[in-house]
Design brief:
Layout: E1 11-15, E2 19-23, E3 34-40, H1 59-66, E4 69-75, H2 80-89, H3 115-121, E5 125-131, E6 149-153, E7 175-178, E8 181-184, H4 189-206, E9 211-216, H5 229-236, H6 239-244, H7 253-280, E10 286-292, H8 314-317, E11 318-319, E12 321-324, E13 334-340, H9 344-352, H10 368-371, E14 383-386, E15 399-402, E16 406-410, E17 417-420, H11 436-454, E18 466-468, E19 475-478, E20 484-487, E21 494-501, E22 505-513, E23 521-526, E24 529-534, E25 539-547, E26 550-560, E27 563-565, E28 568-576
């Protein structure tokens, strides 16, 4: 276990084009700091011991937090993919193509410049481990966006539609993708990500390169059937305590125990990581950030706030943010300035002494000076987050505009709520009628923001296209994660994919389903090409289909009469030029 260690570190600050830190106490590695981002999935602000949770046990993260600098008012998006887009690019997610979490809304435009790309160009080794959720196919995979080493799951999580059928919804011994190739791993998924990440760090040290490691677990996101059993059994014995942190009339104790198990497992891995950094002699000049992607996946304790994942009240969009860097921070430094996920990239570039590339426009701002007492006159600004289902944002729907005193929000674009957050952190006393001028002022500020982000590029909310036939991905596996839904509820029963054919080539296109459906019809449409077949088992291949270079709409359907089988993957494999 990792616990606080007393430090006697002297900081030498040298200014070149930005901050470039070195530390006399750093035993190994480059002068530039190593960087690690630890991102939990669906872990709420109140899910840690240090934030007041009386049940979930997180001794390592609690100790880590006490040794870190803290941004006390740190905001993220209400759901997964938008947060990840802003975290990776330093920009509002509405600029990046990412509007939602599924059915075409969680793909990021390839021209977006990620922190991994910038750090890679600056000489960093770059590695990503866990949940990417910004596109499953070329050119949107982590390897296409700056990560030299990537072990990742597809879509929004294991057990979702883009997961390989043979994974069978596993969190333990999961099938993952290593630099694009399918691998069968051993161990609980969170343990696997940390194992690969630690090996990546060791290899980077051998090559005498600073590293950037992004460890984004899919825990404690559901489903909840496959978690560390010993920890789940431990929490099941705390039934009354678990019920006390739930706001549901009938608390789901089994689910809460599973969430507790996954959170404590994350905590164990954080402790293991910090001990490993110490053994490697790089703990002092390695930046480690701990945060989450949105509010909790359930109606449970969130401190002195209300709300959960998907909400734009504080409980749904506020995350812990701890930045551990003994070479620079003694530990205990705090700032109450409002910051957000899109501030992380400029902050880390600042810390590494790396300039933002020319032509790259960031929405975020480095808050490093706030934590090093170099900023005396921080200009206050509003934090903007918004999310709702659908591929095109709607004005005022499920948004929050948060500032140091006032917060404006609306869940349905019909009723606006105005709160004095300094007096009402739970956002229970709506002051919109008492302060109509402030309401209108903030609505106008929101519209300026909305119009700005919506005009980032021509046809701003067009869905990014998957490129097929490129050497980087000769066999593209398509799922309902990234299709555009035509019919059906939730993920849809019918849909189509927006593709670009890299160059004139011949393809074999295979339709694969989860369960055998002998005798069912298979229909493939690729632009003007229509092909039909009959299922014998779980897959059918249409061979030798010549596709021309350019944009293409593709769809496939497995049906019998009016019944459509939706558990389907489509493989578009280039077989010849």
């Amino acid at each position: 276990m990792y616990y606080p260690i007393k430090k006697n570190i002297f900081l030498i600050l040298t200014v070149f084009s930005g901050f470039l830190f070195s530390c006399s106490g750093n035993d190994k590695g480059n002068q530039r700091p190593n960087i690690i981002i630890l991102l939990a999935d669906d872990q709420g602000y109140g899910d840690l011991g240090i934030t007041g949770n009386p049940v979930f046990e997180t001794p390592n993260i609690d100790a880590f937090a006490k040794e870190s600098a803290t941004m006390e008012n740190f905001y993220v998006s209400p759901v997964c993919a938008p947060t990840r887009a802003s975290l990776m690019t330093g920009r509002y997610n509405y600029r990046t193509g990412v509007t939602d979490t599924y059915i075409g809304g969680a793909m990021m435009f390839t021209e977006e410049v990620t922190i991994a790309e910038v750090l890679k160009d600056a000489g960093y080794a770059t590695g990503m481990f866990g949940k990417w959720h910004l596109g499953d196919n070329y050119p949107m995979r982590p390897m296409d966006q700056g990560f030299e080493e990537a072990l990742y799951l597809k879509g929004g999580g294991l057990a979702q539609p883009s997961d390989p059928f043979e994974n069978n919804r596993r969190y333990t011994d999961p099938i993952l993708f290593h630099n694009g190739e399918k691998v069968h791993t051993k161990g609980f998924c969170t343990n696997v990500y940390y194992n690969y990440a630690i090996n990546f760090m060791k290899q980077s040290l051998k090559e005498d390169k600073p590293f950037f490691a992004y460890i984004a677990t899919n825990a404690p996101h559901g489903p909840f059937h496959d978690v560390p059993e010993d920890l789940k059994e431990y929490y099941l014995k705390k039934e009354k305590e678990l019920a006390s942190i739930s706001f549901d009339k009938k608390p789901n104790i089994d689910k809460l125990a599973a969430i507790g198990a996954m959170i404590t497992n994350i905590d164990q891995n954080v402790g293991r990581l910090m001990e490993e950094l110490k053994k490697l002699g790089i703990d002092k000049n390695t930046i480690v950030i701990y945060m989450s992607d949105n509010g909790p996946n359930g109606n449970r304790y969130v401190g002195n706030m209300r709300g959960h994942k998907g909400n734009v009240t504080n409980g749904g969009i506020r995350s812990v943010f701890y930045m551990h860097w003994p070479a620079v921070f003694k530990g205990g430094e705090k700032s109450d300035i409002y910051a957000a996920h899109y501030d992380v990239m400029p902050t880390l570039l600042d810390a590494a002494g790396v300039k933002t590339p020319e032509g790259v426009k960031l929405d975020g701002r480095s808050f490093l000076p706030l934590l090093t007492n170099k900023e005396k006159d921080w200009k206050d600004r509003a934090i903007f987050v918004q999310w709702h289902r659908g591929l095109e944002p709607q004005e005022f729907r499920n948004f929050a505009m948060a500032g140091k005193k006032w917060t404006l929000l609306s869940s349905n674009a019909k009723r606006f709520e105005l709160y004095d957050i300094t007096q009402d952190p739970r956002e229970e006393n709506d002051l919109s009628k008492e302060h109509p001028e402030k309401l209108e002022e903030m609505k106008e500020g929101y519209m300026q923001w909305f119009n700005d982000v919506s005009s980032t590029r021509e046809n701003n909310y067009a869905t990014p296209r998957i490129i097929v036939g490129n050497d980087a991905e000769i066999n593209s596996e398509l799922s309902r994660q990234d299709w555009i839904k035509d019919e059906g509820k939730v993920w849809g029963t019918k849909g189509h994919w927006l593709l670009t054919v890299d160059h004139d080539a011949v393809f074999d296109i295979t339709v694969k389903i989860l369960k055998p459906k002998p005798g069912w019809n298979v229909t493939l449409k690729a632009g003007d090409i229509v092909k039909k077949g009959v299922m014998k088992d779980t897959e059918f291949t249409f061979k030798g289909i010549a596709l021309k270079k350019g944009d293409l709409t593709l769809s496939a359907e497995v049906s019998k009469g009016d019944e459509v089988y939706e558990r389907m993957h489509v493989f578009v494999k280039r077989v010849s030029e």
